[in-house]
Specification:
Chain A is of the alpha/beta class. Chain A is built from 16 helices and twelve strands. Chain A has a six-stranded parallel beta sheet with strand order 3-2-1-4-5-6, sandwiched between helices. A three-stranded antiparallel beta sheet of chain A has the order 7-8-9, covered by helices on one side. A two-stranded antiparallel sheet of chain A has the order 10-11. Classes of the chains: A alpha/beta, B alpha/beta. At the A-B interface, helix 6, helix 7, strand 6, helix 8 and helix 9 of A face helix 2, helix 6, helix 7, strand 6 and helix 8 of B.
């Protein structure tokens, strides 16, 4: 029994945030139909798992990371026929997901008013960058990384000795996608009671801003303007990533209180006498001398294997973990979630792609979800959707294809 | 249902949530539910959620009711205190669960077992209850009893391996982003389990590992690429090694995020800088590979960027519809005209912290708007209301428990 079994989603997602959201809905059991314009390939291709250049347009590995488990159709929404077909499909659907710039759906005559007129129960989730209401940033072009810069998030990521921020990995997109999923599921609760859908206007920047509430409050309360934080965090010391023995090996260590610190000092025993100095014994002392503290810890950690030291610290109830790269993740039992999609258990493995994927990030007893299949080939499910689902006969489908509608 | 401010309906009206959250993850998940109308009762240990000790505090003066992160995370919730290490406290908690739809927490599994607060215990009290556990290492991994904080979870997910400079320490995503992501997904798991309950009538246990949440988006996505290509990508520094341009670039008075995947934008940008033959370089046509020669290509336009201020570039790029954006500080964001026009910032009045600004909605639902109904609760502010008024304890029983410190 999957949570969203029986739900149908129209997914206009492109680049990353939108497709990720569709992916989560598919995990939860919804039938997610990815809609792309016919003909040319989408302007933007996020290959993710594979190097773009090596993968052809019709190779599902292209989008495998983001579109697995979805159906793929092509439909020209700018044509009258395409528009009409879309509204017919909409009448059979529950949720529409789009991350176009604000106003694009309205331009296609597919704003919320039009959609709800065709299907009052429809939930439209619009994940624009800066929101649908007027404001000077409304029409800006952005990508996740530049949006993170605009909303004050990127400026916090970097080293203490250099004001130049470092690149994130576009983590604004998944933060936005996760929030949108919450809003959609809440809207489903309301629809259950009222029969009514609604429009979710989400500014991805505003959703992601939530997680820097702490420095925002520090500014509001104290006028302090935070810069790059390296690996530090207010009120914790040590709170860092330290060099271990070997080539580019590192481990994280976090100590919150003096009990944890005493445990760390005991675990280090005689190998790091400097750590036992009284100036480090209290949190206030450690915070006051954090540069010295970090240097003293690294003198100790650099002599040890990151995994062995982690074991030793964890045995002493100190929070530590090695910095993991792909080979470590592959070898690690904690990441059982890594699976091979060649053994997809979903109902429609039209293509078998022997490729690793990362599993579903929540566990529900008996109803976690399912990877329904690999990514669709663009338009690969036109026959299923337009034929089986909508009842358009093969001759008419051919005619639509000839006219470039699908 | 008690009438409060606001006339619109609420998406999660009638949903009763018990939150046993400490610090960020479960607490943020419960906040998302509260802000959409759920009745969240935050069950705090007698000394309070540790976030109350964290700050930031005005003038850096600690006070358990005045911390900024507490005010943010716990608005819209009610607070009761309960000592769950005490048998009577445990019984009281299970009684509270009888009328709850959801129990959401981030207590380590071993601690829960020690206190007899497992899913089995909650489900015996209320078979329909949905229990959501969001812990750093999850419930079904070899590390489930290890100690971890957001930094440990971030590096364990695999993502830090890509952030920072080669040769220097890998970086986390600051201010506990991993815990917030854990909270978002705890809210997702809660609402999915409620969908299942609607169909089956049964509650269930849902659990999440913060490591896996972050891994499923970021850290883990590097693994398939590694398996496919055999290439291990290192830390990106200021230039992401995915396509060109995707970088943090110095300008006259700060930094800009320079990124575009659209060829026309890139061409318009090159023309702005004065153009040149360099831009016709064959290697620049395949921009997903061109990052390899970033240092060489950068030389042709970085000096132009350094000659211009953030404000000039903002105007220029907006006009030319180019997706490059300035690296703003939190100060610039708080004062942004756009967020003002969006009516983003909200004001709450708190008996101890006074009137204060806080962040507005992460999303706007047209029929059931996100809303702030009340400021963060004082520690145990709603104990009597909940234990006597709703659970039906007598005043004498309540006072007896309070005298022993089981409730307050």
């Amino acid at each position: 029994m999957l949570a969203l079994e029986g739900m149908r989603v129209l997914d206009h997602g492109h680049v990353w945030a939108g497709p990720l959201l569709g992916r989560s809905l598919a995990y939860a059991g919804a039938e997610v139909i990815k809609i792309e314009p016919p003909g040319r390939a989408s302007g933007v291709v996020m290959g993710g798992a594979v190097a773009r250049a090596e993968v052809a347009d019709d190779d599902p590995r292209r989008y495998h990371d983001y579109d697995r488990g979805k159906y793929g159709i092509t439909l020209d929404l700018a044509t009258e026929e395409g528009h009409e077909l879309y509204l017919r499909l909409l009448a059979m659907s529950d949720i529409v997901v789009e991350n176009f710039s604000a106003g694009v759906m309205e331009g296609l005559g597919l704003g919320y008013e039009a959609l709800s007129a065709a299907n009052p129960g429809i939930i439209l989730a619009s994940l624009s960058a800066t929101g649908a209401t007027p404001g000077p940033w409304r029409d800006l072009r952005t990508y996740g990384p530049s949006l993170a810069a605009l909303y004050g998030i990127k400026g916090l990521l970097g080293y203490l000795d250099d004001p130049q921020p470092r690149e994130d990995t576009a983590d604004l997109d998944p933060t936005a996608a996760g929030h949108a999923m919450v809003a959609i599921l809440a809207a489903l609760e309301y629809r259950e009671r009222s029969g009514l859908g609604q429009h979710i206007d989400m500014a991805q920047g505003e959703a992601t801003l939530q997680r820097i509430a702490e420095p925002v409050f520090d500014y509001l309360l104290n006028g302090r303007v935070a810069g790059p934080q390296q690996n530090r965090y207010p009120g914790f010391a040590p709170h860092g990533v330290y060099r271990a023995s070997g080539e580019d090996r590192w481990l994280s260590i976090v100590v919150r209180d003096d009990t944890e610190w005493a445990a760390l000092v005991a675990a280090a025993e005689s190998t790091a006498p400097e750590l036992a100095e009284p100036r480090f014994a209290t949190l206030a002392g450690r915070l006051a001398e954090q540069d010295d503290l970090d240097a003293a810890i690294e003198e100790w950690t650099v002599q040890h294997d990151a995994f062995e030291l982690t074991q030793r610290l964890q045995a002493a109830r100190v929070a530590a973990f090695p910095v993991m790269g792909p080979p470590d993740l592959l070898a690690d039992d904690n990441h059982e979630a890594l699976r091979r999609s060649g053994v997809v258990i979903g109902p429609r493995a039209q293509i078998t792609v022997d490729q690793l994927y990362y599993g579903i990030p929540w566990k529900l007893t008996g109803s976690t979800g399912v990877i329904q299949g690999p990514s669709p080939i663009k338009g690969g499910d036109n026959d299923y959707v337009f034929g089986e689902l909508m009842g358009i006969d093969p001759a008419e489908r051919d005619a639509l294809r000839d006219r470039g509608v699908i | 249902m008690a009438a409060t401010t606001g006339s619109a309906e609420r998406a999660l009206e009638g949903l009763r949530v018990l939150e046993l959250g400490d610090f960020i993850s479960a607490s943020y998940g419960a906040k998302l539910l509260a802000d959409l109308g759920a009745d969240v009762v935050k069950v705090e240990p007698p000394r309070g959620d540790s976030v109350r000790d964290h700050g930031p505090f005005a003038d850096d003066e600690p006070h358990p009711e005045r911390g900024g992160l507490h005010l943010f995370l716990n608005a819209n919730k009610r607070s009761v205190t309960l000592d769950s290490t005490d048998t009577d406290g445990r019984d009281l908690l299970l009684r509270l669960a009888e009328s709850a739809d959801v129990v959401i927490h981030n207590i380590p599994p071993a601690t829960l077992e020690e206190r007899g607060l497992t899913y089995e215990a909650f489900s015996a009290a209320n078979p329909q209850v949905v229990m959501v556990s969001v812990t750093v290492f999850g419930y079904d991994t070899p590390y489930r009893d290890w100690k971890g904080y957001a930094l440990n979870a971030t590096v364990a997910s695999g993502i830090s391996n890509r952030i920072g400079d080669q040769g220097r320490a890998p970086l986390w995503i600051p201010y506990c982003a991993a815990d917030f992501q854990g909270g978002v997904h705890a809210a997702i798991a809660t609402l999915l389990a409620l969908q299942v309950r609607r169909k089956t009538g049964d509650g269930q246990h849902a659990w999440l590992s913060v490591v896996e949440v972050v891994g499923s988006y970021l850290g883990g996505s590097a693994v398939p690429g590694f398996v496919f290509s055999g290439q291990m990508r290192g830390r990106a520094g200021t230039h992401m090694d995915a396509f060109y341009p995707w970088q943090v670039t110095p300008v006259a008075d700060g930094y800009f995020e320079v990124i575009t995947m659209v060829d026309e934008q890139w061409q318009r940008f090159v023309e702005l800088t004065g153009g040149g033959e360099w831009a016709d370089d064959e290697r620049l046509q395949a921009r997903w590979q061109a990052w390899q020669w970033a240092e060489e290509f950068d030389q042709h336009w970085h000096p132009w960027m350094r000659e211009h201020s953030k404000a000039e570039l903002v105007e220029l790029f907006a006009k030319e519809r180019i997706a490059f954006q300035p690296v703003n500080t939190v100060e610039e964001v708080v004062h942004s005209d756009h967020l003002r026009d969006r009516d983003f910032w909200r004001t709450l009045d708190h008996p101890e912290a006074g009137e204060h600004l806080t962040l507005g909605p992460p999303y706007r639902l047209s029929r059931t708007p996100w809303e702030l109904r009340r400021a963060a609760p004082l520690l145990g502010e709603h104990s009597a209301e909940v234990y006597i008024g709703e659970l039906g304890l007598t005043r004498a029983d309540y006072d007896g428990l309070a005298a022993r410190g089981v409730v307050a």
